[in-house]
């Protein structure tokens, strides 16, 4: 991109985004929302041909990039290409991820490592690649897509919970490290939405019969909840990245709040009840 074009884009308040997992779900919705309002997006996907319609609609304001976020070297290359093309990166959305469904005992080593590689190490590699750019330009905003499952644990989602809890811990420390450098970090925690998270992108363990009653109870509970339309989140994300002092954490939807409140209250009650034993240590 020409230097004059870069300066004009910055002067007009146009933001440059780097979004992982942009082919579907939240990633696709937020990519389209950013482009529709005039921003530029480096949109990554494992199969970038799925982004061709965006190129046809928005031309040079979208840069489709092939990226498997588990490949650290590839993440660095993709971030570098985005910075070279657009001159800066204002917003990074670490959205790529998937759900692993199954009991802890059922989970194979390969499944566990793959879940952590994508949901935890993927955001780490992208974040490490973009931080030198944001430090040099004096600011930026990293949006880490976590989950209600990053704050409260549920049966059949143990390794998914582990990956998102780890992402939250890493991101909270990151916010303290980069805040003084003018870089914001927000952990977005969606409730249930009608994305492909539990659909074709999900991975399932081989079920053990002993856990079938728990599995069926979990399925019944999930079936009783009507997932929200994920498109309603687009304006929220746009407003979030336009905020001068964005929050460290943001729920998406009203569903997570009472669930998380109850989970934290239970922890506080337990710590209080067992304080006499704890203080003996």
Walkthrough of the structure:
The structure is a single chain. With 281 residues, this protein is an alpha/beta fold. It has one domain: NAD(P)-binding Rossmann-like Domain (Rossmann fold, 3-Layer(aba) Sandwich), CATH 3.40.50.720. It is 48% helix and 15% strand. It contains ten helices and nine strands. The strands form two sheets. Strands 3-2-1-4-6-7-9 form a seven-stranded parallel β-sheet, sandwiched between helices. The chain has a two-stranded parallel ribbon with strand order 5-8. Helix 2 packs across helix 8 (234-242) and helix 4 runs parallel beside helix 5. The longest helix is centred in the middle third of the chain and has 29 residues, at 109-137.
Strand tally, please?
Answer: 9
Low-confidence stretches: 1-9
What CATH calls the topology is: Rossmann fold
CATH homologous superfamily name? Answer: NAD(P)-binding Rossmann-like Domain
Proportion of helical residues: 40-55%
If strands are numbered along the chain, what order do they take across the biggest sheet?
3-2-1-4-6-7-9
> Regarding CATH, which class?
Alpha Beta
Number of domains: 1
CATH architectural group: 3-Layer(aba) Sandwich
SSE string: HEHEHEHEEHEHEEHHEHH
Residues in β-strands, percent: 5-15%
Class based on secondary structure composition and strand pairing: alpha/beta
Termini gap: 62 Å
Backbone shape = globular
Number of helical segments with 4 or more residues = 10
Radius of gyration: 20 Å
